[in-house]
Structure formats: structure tokens, C-alpha cells
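Before a colleague's protein record goes any further, I have to sign it off. I want your independent view on whether this chain really folds as the C-alpha cells say. The record follows directly below this note.
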Amino acid sequence: MSEIRNARSRLYDDRSMYFEGVPLQDYVRRFGLTKQAYVNNIQYDSENEEDAYRRAQETAQHGKLGHFAPDGVSDPNYSGRKAWGENLSWGLDFYGSMKGWIGDEEAPLRSARGYFTEEDSHLYQILNPSNLSFAYGEAPGGPYGIVGVMTLSEYHGNIDYSVGKIGYSGPSEEEKRRAAEEEEARKKKEEEERKAREEEEEKLRLARKAHKAHNKHHKVVKALKKVKAFNWALAATIATVAIVVIAAVACGIWYFLLRKKKRVELESSEDIAKEASEEKSEEKSEEKSEDTSEDTSEKLSEENTAETSEDSTEDSTEE
């Protein structure tokens, strides 16, 4: 809080510092505030701090240089919260962030006569008397290794640090003790969050490793299934080819035997026909021989008859 209060106190006294086109002093008086009230009546807030850490983690998650929700597209969600907005920094710790938000933007705010621009927006919100409480949080990650967030609220905070207040001579022993306890609690919280992140990262790493192993096993099983399927297909193909070959051979043998059978039957038919022809020829020869014998017998008979007749004639004549 001391950096914010010191900036408000110093620039309030500077009549050349304008805010919304008028000197900062005049603008603050319009709110009915004295310098002391303007500087001293701002507080730190634990709820705003929760939002600061949340927004730092969300910004580190999407990794973009801008005010976005975790998806990197939507607006930040402050629904139902005391804070309404934030200042962001990348790659800087708390003191580096405050220097960037205050010291580096003072000249641009002067040039703009105190009007809100992209170059002076962080300092504008720090000086804006409407903002009554603040908080800071950071998280590792993002494009520059760390994200810093200061949340802004128009409601009073619940922790009123004395450091930086006008008329403040130094912290009392009670304030020192409280500050030490809060610092220790903050460090403890950061350490717990760091360990939680590391555990989460380790779980994620193991999950990815297991996922890769599962994918590898799945690929092996899939490959084995493919090989098995290929073997089955190959076996089926071989069996089919074997069946076709056997069928072809069987058909060939059957055709060969059929041809042989027909050839044998044909030869048998020819032999039978030949035998029949020979038998017929023999029968004809026998018939011819018989005819010839009969003719010869007839001739001989006729000749004998003739001779007998002649003899008879001769006998008659002699008589």
C-alpha cells in the first residue's frame, strides 16, 4: 500500500498533474476528499487478493498479453466479487510491476492531461479516487515466466495497513508483528500453491506418460490384430487357392478318365463292329462255299445222269 499512497500523495501536491482534464487536487476535491483522506483512506483487501492470485493463474494459463478469462477469449469474471478490474504485468515482481504501473506511465498520463489511454491506464486507476481498495497476487507462467496482478475495487478493504499514510511515523510493535505474520502466511500460501502446482504437474506428467504407454500398447494390440487378421486372410486365401487347385486337378482327372472311358468304349465299339464284320464276311464265305458245293454237286449229278443216259442209249442201240 505504501507505493500507492506515496504516488497519490506526491502527485496530489503537483499542480501540473491533471486528471480528467483538471488538476488532480481539484478532481479529488470534487469527491469531497482532503489530501489526507485521499491518501490514507484506501485499504488492502483479502478477497481482492484471492481474485488477484486467481487472475494471475488464469492469465498464465492462456498465455496472452491481455485481460482475458482462462479460455483466452472471454472477459475476466468478477461477478459477485468486490473487485471490478485489474492491472496486469508480465515478467516482473511486485516492485518491478509498481515501477511499470506508476513511474513508467507518469509521462504518458501528463501528456494526455489525465485522460485514460492505453499508455497510462494503470496509473490512471491507481490515482482514481473511486478505487478504495487494492490487492496483489502473482503466478508463474505465461510468455515471460511470471504474471503480476493488482485488483481494483470501489469498496473499502478489510485490512488497513498504516504504512504510507500521511502522519505515519512508523509501524508499532503490534503492526510489525501482524505484518510479519501476514508475510509468513503469504509465503506459506505461496509455497503451498507452488507444491500444489508441482503435484498437479507431476500428476499431469504421469497421466501423459500413462496415456502414451496406453496408446503404445493400443497400437501394439492393434498391430497384432492387423497381423492376426492378415494371417487369417492369408490362411483363408491359401485354403481357397488349395481348394481351387484340388478342384481343378479333380476336374482334370475326371475329364481324363471320362475321355479314356469314351475312348475305350469307342475302341470296344470298333472291335465289336470289326468282329461283326468279320463274322459276316465268314458267313458270306461259308454261304458262297456251300453254294459252290451245291453247284458242283448238281453238275456232277447232271453229268452222272447224262452219262447214265448215254449208257442206256448205247445199250439200247446195241440191242
Notes: Residues 173-318 form the longest helix (146 residues). Confidence is low (pLDDT under 50) at residues 314-319. The chain is about 65% helix and 10% strand. The beta strands are 18-19, 22-23, 43-44, 83-90, 133-140, 146-153.
